[in-house]
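Q: Can I borrow your eye for a moment on a structure tokenisation matter? Would you mind producing a protein record, from residues through to fold? Write it directly below this note and I will take it from there.
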Amino acid sequence: MSNESIVDGKYVELTYEVIDQKSGAVLTQVEYPLGYVHGTNEVLAPAVMAELDDKTAGEVIEVPIDCNQLYGPRDESLVITDQIENVPEEYREVGTAILMENEQGQTKSFLVTRVDAQSVTIDGNNPLCGREVIFRLEILLVRDATEEEIEYGGKIEEGPELEGVTQVPIN
């Protein structure tokens, strides 16, 4: 394992989880390592990215974040409850994302947060809004980025090898 430090131009792979500070519950976690070129693109909140500077592979860091600073305070006017019969069937499941558009053509994503026999509730606030969380990051790899990775902003994934495969037209 190298002990290269995270600085601009390094390719970094890490995993992370977001933990609610009050309950200790894991709110989200990445299953597969997230790869990026440090200083080229921000894949996480700027406050989290800043804490990665000078860290090395094998380190686990915890970054407390007040999500009110990232997303602003909760806006209860973005929580809407309607009679279930007024809501299309495909939007009657908790966790369903709904893209809404206002009269000015601006779009906003809402999430179905509650469904019961009489009503459906959707919420346009970011799910982390109003929470204090800890980003726990495990740094898996730090190395020099290739020119292609710097240009692309991350790891270049190779497509499947198709040599010798016969393509059949679909009618």
